[in-house]
Design brief:
Layout (H helix, E strand, L loop, with lengths): L2 H7 L41 H13 L4 E5 L2 H10 L6 E5 L4 H11 L5 E5 L4 H7 L4 E7 L11 H10 L3 E5 L4 H4 L9 E5 L13 E5 L4 H13 L5 H11 L2 H20 L4 E5 L9 H7 L6 E6 L3 H9 L5 E2 L9 E4 H5 L9 E5 L5 H12 L3
Parallel strand pairs: 2-3, 2-4, 4-5, 5-6, 10-11
Antiparallel strand pairs: 1-7, 6-7, 8-9, 9-12, 11-12
Helix pairs in contact: 2-9, 3-4, 3-8
The protein binds pyridoxal-5'-phosphate.
Pyridoxal-5'-phosphate binds next to helix 3 and helix 4.
Length: about 375
Amino acid sequence: MRIETKAIHSGMDVANPTKDIVPPISTSTIFEIDSEGRNEDDLHYTRLGNPNRLQLEHLLTELEEGEAAAAFSSGVAAATAVFQALNPGDHILIPEDVYAGNRKLVNKVMVRWGLEVDFIPMTDLDVVEDSIRSNTRLIWIESPSNPMMRITDIEAVCDLAHSKEILVCVDNTWPSPINQQPLTLGADLVLHSTTKYLGGHSDILGGAIVSRHQGRIFQRIQELQKLTGAVPSPRDCWLLCRSIRSLPYRMRGHNENAEHLARFLQNHSRVEKVFYPGLATLSGHEIAKKQMTGYGGMISFFITGGREEAIGIVGRSRLIKRATSLGGIESTWEHRRSSEGEGSITPENLIRISVGLEHPDDLMEDLENALADV
Ligand SMILES: *Cc1c(COP(=O)(O)O)cnc(C)c1O
């Protein structure tokens, strides 16, 4: 089946004995068992598993072409499970421009827990190879990266990692499985903040890990999901399944609108440089072309001027909302350095936009107005 069909039908018949076309929200925290403690779907207690979570996990597994998935209450909870599936003393390689929340998670929690870490330019294969140690167990990839859209060759890093029996986890939040499927490029694990495109309407917090194999590492992640308990509620699982039904068509809209806006910005006199994977001017464009089927809804750009001008521009939009995060049907933008706060290395003249599904002409009018000299 093609991905549009999978998005609509996958998971619907899991733990759904009454064959509801739309499975209900299972609010019960407990499930009746036989005298030996069993039941048909192996459901006992909702932290350990429930129908809505099973439906969601089945759906995510299908979308990423994996063998199994585990859903979490947030993207960073999912990342925590991946790191804790390793052992204290293991070494991990993380991109130097990794999502800021994951950088803090590694530095403030996982290092204290005993992981050794190096933050490296993941786009440079020679640096990746030189950074591998005898105790390196995991390489983390985020491509395109935030906010500079650096592109990592997923297949090349996976080949290198696997030659040394190292696992690869790809944070696929930005592209979504519609634009990029890392497991088919050789990755072992895919991470999602389902808060973003998969949720798509800025009203769900969630995360997930999808695994290429049912093997040891995934079993440990699933065990951590149940033992540490950072699980999504049945209602959130249900709503996320509902949202994912339209994901392929939403992503087409995001891709299309962002391509329009990227070209518009590129030709604007107040814009110095545009970072968008679909533009030939981006240094990683050729790799993006090879491993992505669409270029996504995120654009970063440098304006002519500095902090004051950038903040002024962001303040002048009427349609595009000022907000952080991404992936909603509504367009949002931000002066990224202000959002990242202390320790940010993002240039002061960078604006990041999450392009929504409004009519592109309305978005361009709003941009034109905000970029006009005042
Ligand atoms: C938002 C985000 C996360 C973290 O997800 P939460 O759901 O906020 O915990 C991880 N990676 C990327 C790329 C993100 O954008």
